[in-house]
Amino acid sequence: MVMAAMEATVQGIFIYGFESYQKTHGLSVDQRRAAQAIMLCQSEALGYEEWIFLNDKHTEQQNHSCRHRSCPRCHGALTHDWLERTQAQLLPCDHFHVIFTLPHELNALWQYNREWSSDHLFKASAETLKELLADTRYLGAEVGLLSALHTWGRTLSSHPHVHVLVTGGGLQGESWRPAKKDYLVPVGVIKAKFRGKWLTWLNHAYAAGALTLPPDWTLERWRQILRTIARKDWNVRIQGAYRHGHGVANYLSRYLRGGPIKDHRIVSASSERVTFRYRDHHDNHEKTLALTQEQFLSRVLWHVPVKGQHSVRYYGLYSTGAAHKRQEVRDQLGLPEQEPPATEPQSRQCPYCGHPLFHRVSVRRQISYLRNTACSNLGGTVQQGVQAAPLTQERPAQSQSTERIFLALPGAA
């Protein structure tokens, strides 16, 4: 039997396979919202903007994007803006790039405790670096940290880790103290402190009943995992020093939005399998991996972030309240803070005569109000520790679900 082909994009795969997938898989509210956003992105269902040229009545229409963090179609402008703001904020000094990775034995625990796990991965990595670099044996100064959470490996596997961009120096009192060239902190010291912090908080959370164990974990299994990870050498890597840190910021910007895979990596897609490219970090060769459609959807959905939880966080000299300290550093180093370049909005022009088009109408619809029309079947089991998305009745046209705004046009009757 020949299976029908589908568009080889993340959106095409979800449109083709998500309805049947959700009938047999437990999904959280966040995962359902992400799937709906991916399927509806840049479709007329979310509304549109319309422009007109009054002389010949030529009109153009552009559909709205979903702007969801897991959607690979519409993240470009937001990513560009974040990168420009971040590069303008970076201090004019060398930076180190430190990657903290949790042992793979904790992947199942992460799945049922996403918010707690990600919060404490940020906290453990930041406190480890801040405390060690405040020690006079290493630097003895307050540093700046920019941390970004990633949860996937190159094959979309479960691989929670956090990237931290660290200033190669810090404020000691009111004076700038540079780090030793190509040296931050002994990696063995960082590993031990990071592991100790995480395990301490993990045990306290379990004792307080703040953790949900996976349903197939017995008490003995839990204790065995604790013993195993307590003896392991946790994976922490230090890279640098990089001049100004702009290159690392650019690297991080590619993974802040758009989910674990972008469309250009997908080679082919059908109802039977999805094939995509990845680079094997062992030999640095580009390879392909074929997954069933079910496996592909599961891997993409596993990485949907918790709604409202920040995937980038700032500490020390890079925290929001440390602007005056950053200015002190710039004054001492003799370099003013850069302003992000102002981008003038591009006016839309008629493709035939080149004259400007006038914005005529804006129609906006919220994804949450379109649940019944876009994903009518929300059945299926719900995994432990998550709550099913509630069904909502479709709102009538011209209500909150559809906001239609006509704009006054010059010379219009």
From TrEMBL:
Q: Which GO molecular function, any one, fits this protein according to its record?
A: transposase activity
Tell me where in this chain the Transposase IS801/IS1294 domain is found: 144-321
**What is one GO biological process annotated to this record?**
DNA transposition
UniProt cross-references to InterPro entries, sorted A to Z: Transposase_32 (IPR007069), Zn_Tnp (IPR026889)
The Transposase zinc-binding domain covers: 18-102
- The positions making up the signal sequence are none
This chain's protein is named Transposase
The species this protein belongs to is Thiorhodococcus drewsii AZ1
